[in-house]
Amino acid sequence: MKRSIFIMGILSALLVLAGCMASAEERLAAGLSETRKAFEEKPPETNETAGQIELYLPGGYDIEEPSDDNNVIITRGSDSYVLFINPNEAPDSKFFYELQKANDEQVWIADETFEQNGRSGFVTLREIAEDRIEVVVSAGGVKMTTISEESDVPGNMEWMMKTVRSINTEN
Fold first, then answer.
1. Could you tell me which of 138, 128, 135 has the C-alpha nearest to residue 154?
2. Does the CA dihedral 152-157-163-167 come out positive or negative?
3. Dihedrals φ, ψ of 101, to 5°?
4. Of 144, 145, 135, whose CA–CA distance to 28 is shortest?
5. What single string gives the DSSP state of each residue in the chain?
């Protein structure tokens, strides 16, 4: 009798825990919210340099050589991120967004735009294979893109936005 009560208790606890786990849609919504927050907040202090560009990178990420003032490859383990910097674009530029949206046949999982204090930004997500998502994040004339596992998308969006926001192209 005690054993069956114990087993029922464990099963009940597992059901409660399963109900508490966020779905993919809930994780994505939370990631989009954090990305918007990263866009709206003051940019983080720069802590890395690529060519003449100063930028913020979280710990564990590396800038690959050769990098130049307009294209930077960032890696973490086997993951790669490509940073594009167009110094001719103003903070309110929608150039990268318009390029992203030029193909009407693209299907987007998420397509969020941001506007604040004369600045524009966006994040788009597109499924390219099972459990593989193309993540594109931009602020003004700075864009970063990667192919990410679905479970990594929310965290990637946030730090990528912090990084693109940290780059000052108005020199």
1. 135
2. positive
3. -95, 5
4. 135
5. -HHHHHHHHHHHHHHHHHHHSPPHHHHHHHHHHHHHHHHHSPPPPP-EEETTEEE---TT-EEPSS--SSEEEEEETTEEEEEEE-TTS-TT--HHHHHHT--TT---SEEEEEEETTEEEEEEEEEEETTEEEEEEEETTEEEEEEEEGGGHHHHHHHHHHHHHH-----
Residue partners of 124: CB distance under 8 A and separation at least 6: 100, 108, 110, 111, 112, 134, 135, 136
The answer, yes or no, to whether residue 19 has pLDDT greater than 50, is no
* Res 105 pLDDT > 80: yes
Tell me the whole-structure pTM to 2 decimals. Answer: 0.84
**C-alpha to C-alpha distances, 54 to 14, 51, 83, 153, nearest whole angstrom:** 47, 8, 12, 25
Structure confidence at residue 17 as a pLDDT band (50, 70, 90): very low
121: tokens are 């930004």
